UniProtKB/TrEMBL annotation:
It comes from Bradyrhizobium nitroreducens. Residues 1-23 form the signal peptide. This is RND transporter. InterPro entries: CusF_Ec, CusF_sf. Keywords: Signal. It comes from the Bacteria.
Length: 100
């Protein structure tokens, strides 16, 4: 009996994590680094349509970064995948990785 309950709990947890991973993945945007301004904590990214941000067309725009250390992970010309959110201070990159 106890084993069955534990198994059911593990199954529920796994399903929850999978849903979260899929939701996060859906927001990833492909782009290219055009400019980095470490002093201002900003990065200029050229990117394709980002429906999660209400951007239907490809564009080049300036983003703030959540953590200045993110600007050291990439350099101008890098192809990247990133996630961003619309904050009061402007569009902010919350995650950035070099595209594989
Ligand atoms: Cu944009």
């Amino acid at each position: 009996m106890n084993r069955i309950i534990r198994f059911a709990a593990a199954l529920t947890l796994t399903a929850g994590l999978t849903t979260a991973a899929l939701a996060a993945g859906a927001a990833a945007i492909s782009g290219e680094v055009k400019k980095i301004d470490e002093g201002a904590g900003k990065i200029t990214l050229k990117h394709g349509p980002a429906k999660s941000l209400g951007m239907e067309e490809p564009m080049t725009m300036v983003y703030r970064v959540k953590d200045p250390a993110m600007l050291k992970q990439v350099k101008v010309g890098d192809k990247v995948t990133f996630e961003a959110e619309e904050a009061a201070s402007g569009y902010t990159v919350t995650k950035i990785d070099k595209a594989k």
